[in-house]
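Fold this: Decaprenylphospho-beta-D-erythro-pentofuranosid-2-ulose 2-reductase
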Amino acid sequence: MKDAFGAPQSLLVLGGTSEIALATARRLIALRTRRVWLAGRPSPALDAAAAELRGRGADVRTVDFDALDSASHEVTLGKVFAEGDIDVVLMAFGVLGDQARDEEEPMAAVRVAQTNYTGAVSAGLVCAGALQAQGHGSLVVLSSVAGERARRADFIYGSSKAGLDAFAQGLGDALQGTGVHVMVVRPGFVRTRATAGLPEQPLATGPEEVAEAIVTGLRRRSETVWVPGSLRVVMAALRHVPRPLFRRLPV
């Protein structure tokens, strides 16, 4: 449950080494979040992330989680919820893939889709059911503006995020009146390890800006958060550009 200051006391991160997720966790810990679960594949990076957050005063535990192993999600995540209520679940796993390679290697493209969409559907439904059973909580889903309209440059990744975004919106509608809040976060280009070396896009942000928007959205119980906020207007316009013209735009 939230504390007297309105801040969540517990956080489950799916994708425990995500730079955006860890920036969000730091902000929430500063607001009195005290129990954090970092779910991800076992690695030195996951251990280091847990140690860093412990240094900030939180009780941090790690749990083995593989987005591609959907059959394990119910058991793995069920054990986390069995340890106590979770106020916020942040679904932050995903892969960008390599568009050129993925077009040549269909199974590589399938891996992108399975990670970003199929794994998210599985984990999202498991967490939504657990949040509904406890009667409260927020599920935060990291989507992307790439899912708003397919681009030649990244349509495999973009299509996986489009599916995720539609799923999260529908799930939020299905959970209306249950006490569970679903928030879809649509960042633009974010400067992270995953995007290092890629050409920077207009309106680029960093993990801290996305984290700030997430925390603000949680406080307001927003359903959709754009980062930066100006992308809402930009994408509203681009959504209606005729396809022949859209293909020629440097976006």
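The first helix runs from residue 19 to 30. The two ends are 42 Å apart (CA to CA).
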